[in-house]
């Protein structure tokens, strides 16, 4: 990313933060990042995240955290996404990732999987896990039932101008997830399986070039291969489950419905204010005649 591009991006974010105030984190790494789980969303990322916490990897980053309580991470993810699209490897460094991941011992899900190559390069001591779905068709259906379509809703677009959290989440999806992740599946629905396999092949090639070992793993494999790879004892409790399509929809409703209601109220208040002001101005103009 050129200096001009970086200045333009930061100027845009500075203006956006005036209109939609947000306090960005600026973390420093306070613990080692030990595990990179770089499989795509809807490939057991939530179950794996819960498992890693049980194994002592605290904290473990997951994309649902951005939606629920880490909206303030979005500006930095925006910068990182712009840097990736513009080929700015210098900006894609551990220091910049640490601003939002410095408190984490492990990462899963998107947007982290979008930066697989960069994270592998920036954290050479971290172990790489390629979490997958055994049934690619089942993965396709899961993505279509959860992620596809939620980023291109006109009501969502309109409401995002009337609530801070919705504005930043729209920016997150439009500037990062759509161009670098979900958009490819939306534009090429008949090639979803091919694109799925390409992601894993690309990560394997990065690991091969950098001499990094990795574990191919699915939720059905359970604790044993994961713990063996990570050098951890196998817990007694069953392997965690979570974030089925139904659970995803319930989570989305729980988090987003109150925000949508607030945005709708703000739209009504704004419209009423505009109408009232217009009537008052019209009445005043009539009195002057």
| Cα Rg | 22 Å
**Straight-line N-to-C gap:** 59 Å
Overall number of domains: 1
- Return the CATH class: Alpha Beta
CATH superfamily: P-loop containing nucleotide triphosphate hydrolases
CATH architecture: 3-Layer(aba) Sandwich
Mean pLDDT across every amino acid position: 91
Shape: elongated
Characterize the quaternary organization of these chains. Answer: single chain
Q: Indicate the low-confidence ranges by residue numbers.
A: none
Instruction: Enumerate how many helices there are, as a single number.
Output: 12
Protein described:
InterPro entries: P-loop_NTPase, Sulfotransfer_4. Keywords: Membrane, Transmembrane, Transmembrane helix. Pfam families: Sulfotransfer_4 (PF17784). The chain has twelve helices and five strands. The chain has 289 residues and is mainly alpha-helical. It has a single domain, classed as Rossmann fold (3-Layer(aba) Sandwich), CATH 3.40.50.300. The radius of gyration is 22 Å and the shape is elongated. The N and C termini lie far apart (59 Å). The mean pLDDT is 91.
Characteristics of this structure?
289 residues; mainly alpha; Rossmann fold; five-stranded parallel β-sheet; 12 helices; 6% strand
